[in-house]
Amino acid sequence: MAHAAAPASHRRILFASLVGTSVEFYDFYIYATATALVFGPLFFPAQEPWLQQVAAYASFSVAFFARPLGGLVFGHYGDRLGRKSTLVASLMLMGISTVLIGCLPSHAMIGWVAPLLLCLLRFGQGLGLGGEWGGASLLAVEYAPKGWAYRYGSFPPLGAPVGFIAANGLFLLLGAFLDDAAFRDWGWRLPFLASAGLVALGLWVRLSIAETPAFVEATEHAPPPQVPLGVLVRSHLAPTLAGTLGTIACFALFYVATLFAIGFGTKALGYAREAFLGAELGAILFMALGIGAAGWLADKRGAGLALALGCLAMVPLGLAMPVLLVPGSLGAVFAWLAAGLFVMGFVYGPLGGWLPSLFPAQVRYTGVSVTFNLGGILGGGLTPLIAETLVQRGGIGMVGWYLAGAAGLSLIGLMLTRRR
C-alpha cells in the first residue's frame, strides 16, 4: 500500500477520511440522542412510557438493516468506479435524509404517517452510512506508508468520537438554553437542520482528493469485476465471516455505552439530561484515546492482539455494570462510561486497517462494507432494544452478560483469521 505522494497529500487524505466519517457519525448520533430523549412521545405515543421508548429504539434499528444494502450498493460501485465518487454519493444521501428528519411533523400533526416517514428517512441514513465507513477506511489505508496502515486506518474510526462530541455537545447547549417544552416542540430539530452545513464541508473536502493508488493499480492490471459481491462470495467467504464476527463487539459496546446508557441514566437512574450528556461528552474522549493507542499497538504488534485485548476487557466491564451504573453517584457512572469507551477504542480503532487487510483491492470496498454492516446488524442493530428488554426482565446485570457474549463472538472471528 505504499505510494509516492507528497506529505501534504497525506494530511489532506487523512483529513478527508476523518471529516467525512465525522459528519456521517454526527448525523447518526443526533438521531440516536433524539431517540433516547424525545422521539418516543413525539412519534410513537403509547400508554406505557417504556413502550414508547421500545418503539423509538426499533426505529433506530431500521438503519442497521439498511446498512448492508448500502454497503452492497456503494461497495459495488466503489470497486467498479472508484472510492472517491462513491464516498461523495454516500455523504449526500446521508445528509439529505438527516435534514429532512428535522422537517418532519409529529404524530400529533399527521398521525401514523409521521412514524412511517421517520423510518423511511432513517432507512436513507442507513443506506448512506453503509457505504461511508468502508470507503473512508480504504481512502486512508490505501494511501498509508508501509508500517502505518493501522494508524492511518484509525482516522475514520476517530470520526465516531468527533461526531459524537459535535452531536451531543449541540444537544447539551440546547438543553442549557431551552426548557423541556421548547426542546420537545422544536429545539430537537436544530441539530438535524445544522447537518446541511457539515455535509457541505465534507463534500468540499472530498471533491478535492484524487483516487487511491491501490484502486488505480488494481484497474491497470485487470478490469474491475462485473459483480464484486459474486467474487466475494465465491472466493472470500471465510474472511467475510471472520470480519463480520470481528465487528460485533464494537457495535454492542458502543450502543450500550452511549444510546442505551443515555436513556437508562436519564429515565431509570433519574439523572438530569444535561448532567448525563456532560458525562458522556467527557467519557467519549477516552474512546479517542483508546483508538489512538490501539492503532499504534496494531502497527507494532498486530491488529489481532489489540482487538483481542479489547474483547477480553469487555467481560469485567459488563460485570461492573450493576456496581457502577447506580443512582446518586454520577462519578461512578462516569467511571464506567470512561472505561467502556476506552475499551471501545480497542475493539473499534484497529478495524479501519484490519478489515481491508482481509480482502484484495478488486473486492475490498465490497468486503469491508459487507462485513462492517453485517456486524452492525448483529452487534448494534437491536442492542438498545435488547438491552431495554433485558433490564425490564432481569436488571442491568443481564446487559453486562450480553456484552460478554458479544465479545466472545468477536474473539471467534479473530481466531478464524489466525487459522487462515
From TrEMBL:
The reply on keyword Cell cycle is no
PROSITE patterns, alphabetized:
MFS
Task: Tell me which residues make up the Major facilitator superfamily (MFS) profile domain.
Answer: 13-420
GO CC terms of this entry: plasma membrane
Give the matching Gene3D superfamilies: MFS general substrate transporter like domains (1.20.1250.20)
- Membrane topology according to the record: Multi-pass membrane protein
- Chief subcellular location: membrane
A Gene Ontology molecular function term of the record: transmembrane transporter activity
The portions of this protein that span the membrane are: 12-34, 54-75, 87-114, 158-178, 190-209, 241-264, 276-298, 304-326, 333-351, 363-387, 399-417
Q: Which keywords are on file for this protein?
A: Cell membrane, Membrane, Transmembrane, Transmembrane helix, Transport
Q: Does the keyword Nucleus apply?
A: no
Q: Cross-referenced InterPro entries, in alphabetical order?
A: MFS_dom, MFS_sugar_transport-like, MFS_trans_sf
Where does this protein reside within or beyond the cell?
A: Cell membrane
What SUPFAM superfamilies does this protein's entry cite?
Answer: MFS general substrate transporter
The record, for PANTHER family, names:
INNER MEMBRANE METABOLITE TRANSPORT PROTEIN YHJE, SHIKIMATE TRANSPORTER
Task: Please give the name of this protein.
Answer: MFS transporter
Which species expresses this protein natively? Sphingomonas pokkalii
